[in-house]
Every structure is written in structure tokens, then in C-alpha cells.
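Hey, resending since the last one bounced:
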Amino acid sequence: MVSPYSSYARQLLGSVDLNQGAQELLEAEKFWKLDVFSLFLEKCDEEIFDDCSAGLRLAKFAPPFADKIITYDSTLNAPTLHVRAYCRLGSAYRAVGDYAAAHRTYDLALAEQNLPPVEAADLYRRLAYLRLYQGNGDEAARLIEDAIRIQRLESDLIDRHELGRCLVARATIQREAGNLGASILDLTAALNHLEVNRGPRPYFAAVHNLAVDLVNGGSPDQLATAVQWLSVARKKLRWFKKRHYGKYKLKWLQGIIQARFGATAQAELSYKASRRGLIEMVAPYEVAMISLDLAALYLPQGRLGELRELASETWKLCSGLSLQKQAISALQLWHDAVEQRQLTLELLTSTRTTVAAHTIPAGSRPTATIPAGKRSDV
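The C-alpha cells again:
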């Protein structure tokens, strides 16, 4: 896909070290261009998805940046730019779990008048996630249906990427309501619309969640289909150097499905490949969880030496990193049980459940049965 943004806009934004914040964007007129603003919003979405705390720090600059551009170019639609900025900031607050701040931010967006329909649809989609996580599933369902209706009637008849993002959101809402079959249908439909070259986040979320749904409730035929989806997705994600995390997570899911089929040798290779990558990325939660999955392969085979080495390495890697106290305690019990040759599948399952319940990244929905919860789009 040809970039809609000028090379000059990319050059301008690239000259700013966003890791140090975005104050520079507010201080120099050369940055006050719509293309630069749009690129900045894309960067906010990337950070919110990859590192929600960093995403929040960046998204806080979006509203004042919008004000600078509106002041500089009075021909622009001010409500549209305001809403686009509030959408990123609201998503960032939601991702870190500050639902009250997200609510206030989205209220500012809802107060804007005369929005283009597609901008309203994006607002409704993002707000639907917040309402769902606030426990208001009915309101979330109403919002996402409004967003889907707008996308089907008002958006480009060829470019259906945003419709795909709405279907990913509706699948999440369906799943939380216990409608696993409807979630699978929505995610399958979403994959027919999402364009990975538009950015891998929604595509990764759709493939990840579809695989998780099928692992939790799919038939053998559906699981086989999930393996194919995961293989295709991992190949596509190789083109995005900043998305190795997604590739490793998909490899992990592939291993889980292989283990369900009894292909333990293949599952072991998948787990090890994913674990190596996640160790390099310093992802302690994922390293702990996948190590426990690997241990579940070793224990029935009586591979006590390898199990002991795995438990020792995992404990050293994770004990000093950012895991919650309950998760650290559970890993300590697992490590000690292995050392004393008293590990059971029941203790292994209990450890995995505890780690999953107490180490989900902020903004994710906790679950004890799958890697790092479901992935939400931003």
C-alpha cells in the first residue's frame, strides 16, 4: 500500500525523539501539519498496543498538538482533530486501566459536534472497549453495532480495514457474553477485511484471539484451521521488525494447539522458539507462562533433569523482574517442588493459574487458560 503521508512529514516526525516526549512538536510551527499529526496519532496507537505506559505518556500530547494545528490552519475541521486526539488519549487511559480518566476523555470527544461518520465510528469502537471493561456489556454492544453500521454504509466499499477492526471489537464483546461461536465468526470475517500492510496490530489481535477461541472451544478441524492461520500470520509479521513480540506469541499459540493434538515434539520446538524470543524481549510474564507450558510436556515424560534446569533458569529470569508478589510466590513453590522432586500436574496447573491471574499486563482481560489474555485492538 502506498503511504498516504508525504516523505517530508515522515522526515519531520522522525527528527523528534518521541522516547523523550513530544514537547518539541508543540514548540515549532514546522510540525503543525495535518500529515505530521496523523503520523503522530499512528505512533500513539503503536505505543498503546506495545507498551501502554509509554503510549499514555505520548498520547497526552495529542490534544494540545491538535490545538496547535487547528490554530495554525483554520481551514481544518476542528471537531475531527479534537476527537482523533481524544480517541488516542482515551484508549491510552483504558489500556493502563484508568477507566475513570478514559471515561472523562471520551466524554470530551462525545461533546464535539458535526463529526464525519467514519470518525464517529472510530470513537464508538474505542468507547465500546471501555464500556465492556467497565462491566457495561449492553452499552458496549450498542456502540459497536453503531460503529459497524456506519462502516458498512459510509466507508469506502473497497477499503474495509476499519470494518475489520470493528468486527474484532464485536468478537471481544461476544466472547465476554459467552457467545464463543459468534466471536469465532466475527474474527474469521475480520481477517477477510484487515490489511496487514496497514499495520499489524488489528491483524495480530484477530489471529491471536481466533486461535485462543478455537483452543478453548474449537473442534479438531477448527484447530487445524487455526494452525494454518497462525502460520500465515507469523510469515506476514516477519516483515515488521518491531512486531517480533507478536510473532513469538503466535508461535506460542501454535505450540498449545500442537500439544492439544498430541504432537508433543512439535509443541516443544514451538515453545522453545517462542521462549527464546520472549526472553530476548524481557517479557517476564510470557517467559513464566510458556516455561510452565513446557514443564507440562517434560513432567509426564519423566524428564526431571531438563525440568529442573527449566525451573531454575525461569526462576532466575523472573524473580527479579516486574511480576506481582503472588506470581513470584507461585513460581517459588513450583521451583522448590521441582528441586524436591515433588512436582505434580495439579501443582503445575495451580501455578499457571496463579501467574495468569496476577501478572496480566494493565488493560488486558485476565484469564488462566491462555497466553497473556486476549489482545485488544486500540
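The chain has 19 helices and no strands.

Sorry for the duplicate.
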